[in-house]
From TrEMBL:
Membrane association type: Single-pass type I membrane protein
The protein's name: Ig domain protein, group 2 domain protein
Compartments where found: Membrane
Organism domain of life: Bacteria
Keywords assigned by UniProt, alphabetized: Disulfide bond, Glycoprotein, Immunoglobulin domain, Membrane
GO terms, molecular function: cell adhesion molecule binding
Species, as recorded: Leadbettera azotonutricia (strain ATCC BAA-888 / DSM 13862 / ZAS-9)
GO cellular component, one term: cell-cell junction
A matching Pfam family: Big_2
PANTHER family attached to this UniProt entry: MAM DOMAIN-CONTAINING GLYCOSYLPHOSPHATIDYLINOSITOL ANCHOR PROTEIN 1, NEPHRIN
InterPro entries, per the entry: Big_2, Cell_adhesion_signaling, Ig-like_dom, Ig_sub
Domain called Ig-like: residue spans: 25-124, 206-291
Amino acid sequence: MLLILAAFLVGCGDAEGGPGGGSTPTVLSVTVTPNPVNVGQGRTQQFSAAVTGTNSPAQTVTWTVTGGGTGTSISDGGLLTVVVSEAVSTTLTVTATSTVDTTKSGTATVTVTAPPTVSSVTVTPNPASVGQGGTQQFSAAVAGTNSPAQTVTWTVTGGGTGTSINNSGLLTVAGGQGTGTLTVTATSTVDTTKSGSAVVTVTVPPTVSSVTVTPNTINVEQGGTQQFSAAVNGTNSPAQTVTWTVAGGITGTSISSNGLLTVAAGQSTGTLTVTATSTVNTTKSGSAVVTVTLPVVTNAELYIGEATTAVADISTLTEALTYIKSNAVNDTVYTIKLTADAVLAPTTLNAAAVNNKTEVIIKLEGSGAERKISLSGNGALFTINFSNRYSFPYDPAVGPYNYKPNLSLGNNITLLGKNNNNSALVVVQNYGVLQMESGAKISGNHNKSTGSYADAEGGGVMVEYSATFTMNGGEISDNFAETGGNNGSAYGGGVFNYRGRFLMNGGIIRNNRAKVAGSVSQAEAEGAGVCNDGTFLIGGTAIIEPGTGTDTAQNQTRNTIFLKLNGDIQVKANFTGSAVVDLTAEQSTLAASPYVTSSRAVLEGDLTTALVNKFTLGNFQYSNNPYTSVPITGYHIENSGTNIGKLAAN
């Protein structure tokens, strides 16, 4: 039975590949590489063969070469040897035959060429200087015919222990190598009779004493760049290479390997430190201090007189004012046209600001659209003070109101104040002259006084001591005069005129207020729109609207015009203002009752019944002591007769 089973198993062997075997491999092709190729007389060439087919045929082949003379042969490993006597241009055929299927083979065509020759070997650099303990990379170029191989062998002579050169031509000079010369030689591997050399002078190694960075101090704008350079100082010509770093910067502030500093747009103002460190001696470095500044924005053009061409090299409001300060001449208009918004610190316009010249007009205009000049810091954006100019005598025939303005606010100019300021936004004093035209605006200033008995004098404009403010148009709005301490008074949320001249021929004053925030036992809030204690002329299309106060006793006021004891209103015959103007008249400090006599004029000038009827009395006035509000009842402004314009009992 066992014999029968064994015979059965033998009979069941693999029909394809014998007992227990797999599928028989087949060969489809043989590929010889390289193909074609040139081989010089007396040279060799290595070939390889790839056998492709099914079932992973063996990669073994037999190599043969045909077409060559005696001595030209190929080894079992595919190394072709062409004898020196083989004729140039002879074509040889190298064949690789599969050992799996001898009917499958591949060939390569070989063209016999003349052997390469070497004419010279050039070593670079030559000559060279290398410090004790230093290194130097050399290279060699092998010149000749038929593209000789560039391979060389490197040697160095004249050196002591530790001085050597590697196979890649890197020379290392030992730290103890004496000064003098070495010879570096590169010998061709194609023709060892051909070589080239370089002379190396061994020097004492360089030392670094300092690193100097240029520029050493510099201002760079946010978002700007600055190129730095470094000089490495020392003995024996130390390398000038450095590594650059910057300290104090945020992400985006960096310096390149070439010393180009980039300051991020969001980098805060302050200082950065740029450092250059020597690569020869990393303990030696130099630094520069960089002050990061706000970017300078081009925002202004300056025109002189009737010129239509702007002054060259003037691009900011500050530059324009500086130019006027140094170059102004008598009786000249300097027009500054703002092309973008600007920020300005408190600025005084006095004789020095106009080169000590007379009748100089600085005119501000916005180019193309509204341009804002915002206040930086606390104080008046503009203080117009010409106390040291020649005197302006009062001429009854002409009147004191025809002086040329020192500052003229024209179309599209907005002066923008700030919260918790300590001054009116514009102060005109001591014969200074301010003029405001259509399209100009003074707005957003909060003049808050601090300390006991400290007054807040004017939210928008303060006019004092023989100064003149002429308002031909424009707007004074959203300003606020407020006392923060005890017993201080708030005068004129829009305009406070203290013994100056306020001429309002047009424009509008609105949405201003005056408020007392501290103890009010001896304090007053007088005139949300205008507080007048000087000469006040009103005419033309002037409009003064009620303020935004609440009329809560003297704590806050919305009265439009407050007339102090020395103040009245001179009404011009051309007054066509569309708004009715409220009045609040201060009572006498000499009497306990309202100061109502025939000599108390509220309105003066070219009065008519129609003009007088444009004015009404306000809701209250202040009594003498204590400072409490008293309704104005039983009084009116005479609108006809010899007492026209005067405050009188009903």
